[in-house]
Amino acid sequence: MNLLGNLWAKLAHGFTPSIMDGDSCQVGYEGSHGVSIQIEGLNKSFGDNHILKDINLTIEPGETFSIIGPSGTGKSLLLKHIVKLMKADSGQILLNGHDVLDPAVDALRAFRYSMVFQSSALFNSLTVGENVGLWLREKRICGEVRIRRIIREKLSLVGLEGKEEFRTSELSGGMRKRVAIARSLAMNPDLILYDEPTAELDPVTSDELARVIMSLKEKVSLTTVIVSHDLNFALYLSDRVAMMHGGEIVAIGTPEEIKKSQNPIVRKFIYTTTKGIQGEGD
Questions:
Q1: Distance CA 86, CA 7 (A)
Q2: pLDDT digits (tens, 9 = 90+) for 174-198
Q3: Contact of 160 with 114, CB cutoff 8 Å
Q4: Rg of the Cα trace of the chain?
């Protein structure tokens, strides 16, 4: 639990304390805007194992962008570099033009960001509402009256109205994922990152989660980056998709462009994960 708490603290944008009672919030909390991400020549090795190999990638503000590929290709590792949970050996990561890797520049403090972990990383000792409001209370962002309203609003966005008093241990895997998303949304993030959001979910629950994330695109202004091995999930949600293989990005395009790609690595991945989509457009 301490590990999860420390990791959550790293992902929480720092604010100075505010009034804990009433209906007020800190200045700037209400505003939210998508950020651009530009990755240039990013490399990461562990000993002789070269994991990320000259990664070059641009994600536009407000875009929903998925990074797909088999397990072990460096997808989640790339996500961790974006939010400085890992340090690259070389290269640049620019957020709204500011270098995240430059020790003299704290680019991440220029906006709010949040991450939805593969495991959901909820605190079982807390209720659903307490999990969603955790960051708001910890950082004293809003008065208590407003925090309770925000909790209801964010749970409503993910289809969990009236679940504030439930224990997370009482929830299904899909509902836990949605609580994790609501907790991230409570930060009013400019950037939200999902690490394998459909892991351990059945196809029906994965489809429900996809619809939740898709509906957020119409209601919330932010940049979304999704790491997934679930091709159908990524193609359904994304404005654009990048495929990683062997630590490299081998293709980038719209969902339709990815489906019609003639790259043999892409076509093999599509065929083995969707069984039949390979012939579309032939």
A1: 12
A2: 899 999 999 998 988 889 999 998 8
A3: no
A4: 19
Residue 42's pLDDT band, with cuts at 50, 70 and 90, is very high
Positive/negative CA dihedral, 177, 179, 185, 189: negative
What's the rounded Cα separation, in Å, for the pair 186 and 183? 5
* Beta strands 191-195; 223-228: pairing state: parallel
Q: Which amino acid is at 188?
A: N
- Exposure string for 261-270, b = 16+ CB within 10 A, e = fewer: beeebbbebb
**Contacts of 143 by beta carbon, 8 Å cutoff, 6+ apart:** 18, 19, 20, 21, 22, 23, 24, 25
Please tell me what DSSP assigns to residue 142: B
Average pLDDT rounded to a whole number, residues 214-233: 88
How far is residue 184 from each of residues 21, 114, 154, 194, 276, measured CA to CA in Å?
A: 22, 6, 9, 10, 36
What pTM was estimated for this model as a whole? 0.82
| Predicted local confidence at residue 277, as pLDDT | 43
Query: 3-class DSSP state for residue 154?
Result: helix
Backbone angles phi, psi at 227, to 5 degrees: -105, 125
Query: Cβ distance 228 to 234 under 8 Å?
Result: yes
Sheet holding 64-68, edge to edge: 113-116, 191-195, 223-228, 64-68, 240-245, 248-253
**Dihedral angle at the C-alpha atoms of 127, 130, 132, 135, nearest 10 degrees?**
-150
Phi/psi region, residue 123 (left: phi>0; alpha: psi -120 to 50; beta: rest), is: beta
CATH number, domain 2-12+32-120+190-277: 3.40.50.300
Residue entry with tokens 């008093």:
165
pLDDT in tens, 239-276: 999 999 999 999 999 999 999 999 999 999 988 876 64
